Amino acid sequence: MNSLPMHLLDKILFRLDLKSLVMMQCTSRSIKSHILDDPSFEIGYSSRARLSFIYTFSKGAHFVFYQPFGSQCESMSHVKTFASLPRVNCYILGSCSGHLLLYTSGLYVANPLTKRFRLLDHSGSMLLTTIFNGPNNKANDTEERAMCVGFALDQSRETTIKRFKIICILETHTTYAFEISDGNSWRFSETIITTTNSKSELTKRMKPVYVEGTLHWLRNDGSIIAFNIETEQARLIPSVFHPEPEMKLLFTLDDKINRLTLISGTKKTISVHTLMGDTSKWVLARQIQNVLITDSELEYWNVVAYDGKHMVVRDKEKDSSTGVAHVYNMEDNRWGAWWPTACQAKYNLDVFRFTPFFSFFEHTELVEDSTNEHLARIMRLIDTTKRTNPVFRLMALGYDK
């Protein structure tokens, strides 16, 4: 195996699932070093990984779901795993390069695959202390303010040990300021953006999108606040998009073309708009007939995920006890996989695309050494040593509280 040219070795490794990739690291020091230390391998493997999600209620919940894609798109409904967190709420704030930024009795950066985590001090953040520790913090307030939190990997560091930044955007009328943490301390950016349109605020419940070293927040008029995590400079992208009443929106990234994407859905069609970098305009790239909306009464529907290859739409009929997520294959032009979301329609979901990987941050601990059992349960969602416990699925399907 060591004598294989690198491009042939990568072709083999890219086809392996996580469990097999872990086993391959034990066969050779050079292969282990290639998997763990070569940043190009992480990028290549992640780009070929099947779409997976981790999600919970936006307002916080006593559970977290992980929904990985199986070997076949139609076999999704039986592979979901579920972590129950008694007496404590979990908030997922971000997902990047196999790491999660989450709050559960404390702010953590965690890698569920390597089982390593880091407890962060968020007392220096105006936004996070308001969300989680303020005297009047409420579920709805937490849900809306959490979209102001950005979490990103510093991709300029080409080693297995990565560095991250947390960027909180502070919006006041026409002014945007930014507070930054590298995990050690909090500080304000020197950049402040002032806009002319006071009526266009950040889009509520819309998470920022990270691409090419920059976090992007969508505003109600279709324009974007962009923050470069390396230079710590911000700018306004003057793109324009005016949604129709009752239109469903999703701000996301098309991994195939590496461009910012805006999904807009009506009961008739779901449209995919791409931001063209040279003109800063939203351009209609594709329209899909929304065949999911039938004569049956829906209590809720929304587009919750997209990566350029697949689109996920969640809905719930009024006479159904659980919601359903449908997957549209963009390459085959057909609706395929689905799975029950086991979540009440009256609550919004925070759905994050999640690709497990082996990189880790500095100053982390193993979850086995932690006394936080809730964090340990979330970390066990990604397990390369055994198959999914079917009891989790039964619990998820029966959950309606």
From TrEMBL:
Pfam families: F-box
Protein's recorded name: (rape) hypothetical protein
SUPFAM superfamilies recorded: F-box domain
PANTHER family registered for this protein in UniProt: BNACNNG10540D PROTEIN (PTHR31672)
Source organism, top-level taxon: Eukaryota
Signal peptide per UniProt: none
Ranges for domain F-box: 1-48
